[in-house]
Each structure stands twice: as structure tokens, then as C-alpha cells.
Amino acid sequence: MGAGRRLNGWLVLPAIDLRAGRCVRLRQGDPSAETVYGEDPVAVARHWVGLGAEALHVVDLDGAFQGAPAQLALLRRIVEAVDVPVQYGGGLRTAADVEAALAAGASRVVVGTALGDPARAEQLLSRWGPERLVAALDARGRRFASHGWRQASAADVVEVARAVRALGVRHALFTQVERDGTLQGPDWEGVGSLLDLGLGVIVSGGIRSADDIRRLAALRARGVEGVVVGQALYTGTLTLAEALAAARTAEGGGAGC
């Protein structure tokens, strides 16, 4: 139902992280720190859409750790079950991987490790265009992390952001891995470093409150185009209704980070 639909507007994306066919959350990207929040991810997807979600962010954790997508059949079932676009990532490191994820119904895909190779990045952009691809700007501290968040490179994440923008990338997902699943609030310094680069940045990691979302939405004029919310929704710290209302009522532009 939601196959290939365009993601528009300022996005609040409930996270659905897949591992071994279940909906889980990890703390700081650690596979040994897992909490299961649903045995049926399709039902979880329907739940968030039923509460008003206008798009979903689905992550194949098995794929991220293994280096190749492992949950494409489940992705297809989720896409067929909901009438909203689905952003999908995890282990997409080749053109064939990206093609398979888009064929399974993803509206756009998140690619990280593959963008470290400029030739491969240019190939992906030439084939699918900048609206179907999102650069994964995963960070540990200020360093760019790859290979399922486990390898921190020598490159600063801002350097990587500038490089992918120069290649023609328009959208990025900034995840502060050390805050992911912690409810500590976003990495405001990290977010601030990515403003005004010409990228549309979706922020992930540590989101805990409607205030966080209002503050991020107020930065839309400087490049922030959405937020991924996971742990706060699953623990009830923040409701989806509160998150959506915060995004709608925030004033655009002007706010500092």
C-alpha cells in the first residue's frame, strides 16, 4: 500500500527496528542490550499508523550487523500493510541491495558504509536519484561510524556530510549512536554542526520529549527536516500524538542549537 510513496513535509518517524523477525530496541547500538517490544512488526507498524504516523523508519538490524539485508520479506509485508511511506536501512552496501529494498516497497533507503566510496555513491545517485537515497551519518562522538555502527573512522561526521553533499546527496539521517535508546535528549552540538550545509537532516538518537521535537522543528529553515523517535514511544515517555502536535505547532526557522 505504501510502496514507493514520497516522504513529504516535516517528518516524525516512529522507529521499527527488526531483529530475528521481532520489533526490538537496542541501547547505544549494542546487540547485547536488546529489549523486545513486539513479536509482530507488521502489527507494530499498523499500530503507529493507526495513531497518526505519516511515515515509518524501519531498520534491519540483522542486515546492519551482517553487512547484507536480511529482512526484505518482512519489509514487504510492512509496506503492504500500511498506507504510508517507509524509509528503510540496514546492511545496504551494494547497488543490488538498494535495488532489492526499493523493489520490496521502500520509499527511500538509508545508506551509510557504501557512501564511503565516492564511485559507488555516484553510481547509486545516478541510478536512483537523490530523493530515494538518504546518507546515514552515524556518529560516535564526532567520528563517523560505519559497518553497523561498530567502526568509528578517522573522519569527522561533518567532513563526511560535506563530502556526500558535494556528490549530490540531499537527505541525511544523523544518529548519535551513544545516545540511541538512552532518552538523554539529542546531541545538540552534533545537530548544530550539520546545520546550513545544504542537507535535509533527520535527527535520531536520544529523543525523549515534545520539547526536543519542538526545538528540532524550529530548525527546519536551517536544514532539519524530521526526527526518528523510538525508545520514548515504546516506553510511553512520549506519545505519538504529543510528538506530532509538537512538530505541527513549532515555529519554523530562527532558533539556535
What does this structure look like?
The chain has helices spanning 41-50, 61-66, 72-81, 95-103, 118-128, 157-167, 188-193, 210-217, 231-235, 240-249, and strands spanning 11-19, 22-27, 30-38, 56-60, 86-89, 108-111, 133-140, 143-146, 151-156, 171-176, 200-204, 224-229. It is α/β, with parallel strands linked by helices. It has one domain (11-249): Alpha-Beta Barrel (TIM Barrel). It has an eight-stranded parallel barrel, surrounded by seven helices. Helix 1 (41-50) packs parallel to helix 3 and helix 8 runs parallel beside helix 10 (240-249). The radius of gyration is 16 Å and the shape is globular. The protein starts with 10 loop residues before the first strand and ends in an 8-residue tail after the last helix. Mean pLDDT is 90; it is low at 251-256.
Structure at a glance:
By secondary structure, the chain is of the alpha/beta class. Helix content is 33%, strand content 28%.
